[in-house]
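**User:**
Everyone, produce one record:

**Assistant:**
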Amino acid sequence: MLAIYVGLVGLAFSVNYPGRLTPDSLDMLTQAAHPEILNDWHEPTTIGFWLLFAPILGQPASALLIQALLIFIYPAILIERTIAQRLVALPFLAAFIAALVGVTGLISKDIVSIGLILCLLAALDVRPASGLRLWRPALLTVLIIAITLIRPPNFVLFGITAACWVAIRRIRLRAAIPALILICITTAASPWMVKLFDQKLLGTADARAELSLIIFDAAGISSAIQKDIFAELTSWPTDEVQRPWHCYTPRYWDTFKSGGKCKEYWALFSNINVRPTYWWLRSIVSHPIGYAIHRMKYAFQLVRSPMPIATWGAPYAANVAFVDLSTKGIDMQSYFQLWKPRIAHVPFEWTAALVFSRSTLVIAVFLCLLVLISASKVRGARGAIDSVEVAAAGIGIGNVLMLVAFGVAARGAYLLPTFVCGFVIFLRRSARIAHTSLNGGFKLCGRPGAAAYHV
């Protein structure tokens, strides 16, 4: 397996070298080079991963290598098993891995998050006799914390997964209710705990990123009910700003941020004397129909026309020769390695555009739902439920629900956890079906997939 893993990492690194920066990752790595401007708009934990090999490789090659190292641990395990068992799913696995190679070169916190989620699934999918199993609880805890630190709303994924597990295991009511309450409290508190960690331990400035969600939702509600709820705020200059429905689009909140069409909203709301979270929750409770309409419009845009993960043309990169690599007035032109299009990258980019598409998303969501529904109907020993599939399904569905409730931009990269979890489920189920077919039936004994994929 080690040879397969090294080969995948080497392939992804060489095809994508030195990596493609986005405006967000350009800003984050600029902050890494100039800690005096470090803030928590994008979680600084991601920067810590990207800097691991910076003294040797420079940037963004260091970020590219760490993303490749994280992403291809579990795919290497899947390849070894699939080849050893000569399974029919091999072409699908090849397409999945080619798509992962294509997106690994995108230097983004979303790719780091995907790598950690795949590591989490790999840690769950450990052979019973393995010595690593003894350390699995600690490893899983570290991975969950890391995934949450990369993007605080990610804890919603684990909250939903834990709630699904409580429901599936049919835990007694007197134990289930306290467990669900604890899950809800921990999930709700996680963004504040992450902010405390960033500011007290890492020394970041508070960028007040939560205001993007509050402004987006308030504008969406105002547009749905055709009433400016910002006008309810004391000292809000209603006559001096455009009405929110003139600026609002359900696709993203960017029109309200600094530099957007209605940038005055961010400036005004950042300085207004109000408790933003309380006002946001009160607005949702006061206008539930308007909020539901706004969120349904956003969900429709997220599925129908998200900003693509990969394209059929030349992929975007901020670190190219003709782009000004400066942010916050800091010139970073000499700091970053420049990316140039390569013919070798084209088939991987095209595969990613095909694999991470709208039709595949529908299949991935269906598979996640199928796993949760079928697992809830299983009666018998604990081993009768595939814990890896349930975890993948919970994360996949949890990601969609998290985006529908808290998303502020319809970006395809945000859906990557659902795509990846759907593929993992498909590959495991294909392996199990192939194994039971070869053994003359579909009766499962013990753990599902125990012979095909060790859980």
